[in-house]
Write a structure and sequence with these properties.
It is a multi-pass membrane protein. It is found in: Cell inner membrane; Cell membrane. Pfam families: BPD_transp_1 (PF00528). Its main location: membrane. GO terms for molecular function: transmembrane transporter activity. The chain has 226 residues and is mostly helical. It has a single domain, classed as MetI-like fold (Orthogonal Bundle). Helix content is 84%, strand content 0%. Helix 6 runs antiparallel to helix 8. It is flat. The termini are far apart. 29% of the residues are buried.
């Protein structure tokens, strides 16, 4: 068996274990929290009084306009100078959540804004309050519009979790770095990590395509009934 293949096979187990233990939970937790934060931020920007909307805009401006790696460094390495100590994994969750929330808020805000005004008026005509119209009529339609972009954000987040290695989270990429420190075979190990990320991204892209097709059929059904 070639040396490179033997090394890949031996390291595959530790790499997958690190991915399952840290990369997958980090991705899921940060995305779900970020999605909730993004929804709240989008609603504040669209419907809240101007001071709150300005505060939400400022948050989005900061986290979309600065590098994710810098944000992680500020949280993990910078905050301790103010007396705020956060362990590596929670710091990564906070950093990724804030970053994802900023981007998803723009996706959700644009999706809500894309719904024709007539949908609001039709909901009001049936006796719904603004909150009911938003929850029952607008958000379901906006969700269908936002799904492709949100799925792309999720796939990007899977790859971005490799940045957590910079703040000592022992996820997939840092596991590879530790093996490289012992084997002195960076090319082989980093190619293997790249292939693992590639497989994950490909599987998620395939699931995204299936979801978009399903939503497309559902949207066509609704349009046929309209």
């Amino acid at each position: 068996m070639p040396h490179w293949l033997d090394l890949m096979l031996q390291s595959l187990g530790p790499l997958l274990a690190a991915g399952l233990r840290f990369t997958v939970p980090l991705t899921l937790i940060a995305f779900m929290l970020g999605l909730g934060l993004g929804l709240g931020t989008a609603l504040v920007r669209l419907f809240a009084p101007r001071p709150l909307a300005a505060l939400a805009w400022f948050y989005v401006w900061i986290f979309r306009g600065t590098p994710l790696l810098v944000q992680l460094f500020v949280i993990f390495y910078g905050l301790p100078s103010t007396g705020i100590l956060i362990d590596a994994f929670p710091a990564a969750v906070i950093g990724f959540t804030l970053n994802v929330g900023a981007y998803t808020s723009e996706i959700i805000r644009a999706a809500i804004a894309s719904i024709p005004r007539g949908q609001w008026e039709a909901a009001y005509a049936t006796g719904m309050t603004p909150a009911q119209a938003l929850r029952r009529t607008i958000l379901p339609q906006a969700a269908r519009v936002a799904v492709p972009s949100l799925a792309n954000s999720f796939i990007a987040l899977v790859k971005d979790t490799s940045l957590a290695a910079a703040i000592t989270v022992p996820e997939l990429f840092q596991a590879a770095q530790r093996i490289v420190a012992v084997t002195y075979e960076p090319l082989i190990l980093y190619i293997e990590v790249a292939l693992i990320y590639l497989v994950l991204s490909t599987c998620l892209s395939w699931l995204q395509t299936l979801l978009e097709r399903r939503l497309g059929r559902y949207g066509g059904y609704l349009e046929a009934r309209a």
